[in-house]
């Protein structure tokens, strides 16, 4: 590989500050019979031979010398490439299978238990039919939160983030691709699961539950809930980007989900009545209940309102995550 | 071409890199040397835009890394062999990087073949040895077939065959006209791989020159002289005569003398004049290792010290000094030009030079140091 010219180079002292152009153009275009040196394992002819025909060699461009030009066609990477990459990433780690698998098992399992329990008691129940999915989704959302946080924090935990950001210096593109792919995966899985549970309840409980549910209620209990849970996972991802620590991010998110209700329970004082009310109404479990029409209070967010609240909060935290990713050292 | 100008990085009160300016030119392997904690990795991270410099700037081909068009096709880097998600297979790790950079997927199998990991490509990288991890990291760096390559300690954990491979790889990459910037603390490795050296210590530039210039500027060649062992007085006689003739003499553990500042024929003449027979008179060229040790002596952050085992060793009668034990007898101590508290060379009981780095070639200390020498040493260390 080494040309005679280069073999002499170590012998002659190169002036440390001398312009490189002084001796570089003498280099003949290196014919890359094996451009990467000896592979340690003897093998057949390397497959990179196929690009050899186009190899342009060193060339001058606008007076600036490029020492090496790759024969592989250069193409500007874009968000689409980052999305494909994130899709490869999310499906090639086991934590995705584990968290989403447990989520599906929880939502369907608890949905089944509720159906059996409600069906077994025999009396008529005056609750909208889709609302029985609530308990399973509440627990399942914790799995989605974990996956959301891990999507980002596992890169920090392993050091992969440095490799990623070297391959794609645009922080915004990496964050957007991660967010979109995670959101899509979490939404689709949650939607499939909640739809299954809704169909199951519809089949098993149609005799027991007499309250008619309109299309809007069914949509909220499937699509609405799935969008809400996926957004919650996105919030966890943003928190993970800010904290850069798996356990820390998951713990913070569990606190966000559970603490308002727990704090509200301990606010006995009259003066804190308003705060207590607010915490109850806008805690994440009661927002989730709002989709099913089973919120803690009557004045709490119902219908699609919880989704707008969650989207707003997530957008703000995501903005902070982007700023942190851009400004802070990796 | 990598250019750094006045690069400075502070972490709180600690300055990791201070006012570093250098150029890494295409077509050669440039070694980046420094003791542990001297700022090599920090500098590499700043080159890659992972860390923002506190002041100064570093550019690749005229652009800061984060503003480079097609960065992954222009710059490839191995920063840390373990910077991979262990749960992902080698192939999938490279595939997601290739997709992120807009590189055809078949390039992944190519680089897997180049680094010799094709047989374990579908195994999760968690189970990889450090050497396999390094190969995976090198594969990731080569993925974009870039013209600028950065490698941070690429031979760590590699077997001799792998070290040889990396050495040839670096050279062949540079021979293709690429810019190759390799950090290491293995001097011997850099002597064989690099043509140009950038040496830093405590975050500051110590040297920026070719390997050949580096060795000749930073180390003095010396002559080894041995007088007959049977007549110790000849040795003292010759020492006195050589010092008088303008040379510097350092006694060695085995009774030989290291002479600097006098050419070999002159040493022979002096010996002849004072009527001393010589058993040995041989030239020694300082290695890159020695040159590096000399240069970075004052800039080592983490220094090992002798294990004192205080209270564990038996009390030795005061005043007893074992024959042949001389803490000042170290090439590093002499080379640093540090003042010798003991006055002369080779005097028993001379105090150790606290600034002398432990040298690989330094004579092994007796396992049980005498108590008085120990106390001296500790006083000395406390004083600094």
Automatic annotation (TrEMBL), chain B:
Q: Which GO terms describe its molecular function?
A: ATP binding
PROSITE patterns referenced in this protein's UniProt entry, alphabetically: ABC_TRANSPORTER_2 (PS50893)
One Pfam entry name: ABC_tran
Comp. bias (Basic and acidic residues): 375-384
Domain ABC transporter, which positions? 2-227
**Compositionally biased region (Pro residues):** 355-370
Specify where the region named Disordered lies, as residue ranges: 331-384
Q: What does the UniProt keyword field contain?
A: ATP-binding, Nucleotide-binding, Transport
Its family? Belongs to the ABC transporter superfamily.
Know the name of this protein?
Answer: ABC transporter ATP-binding protein
Please report the organism this UniProt entry assigns to the protein: Streptomyces varsoviensis
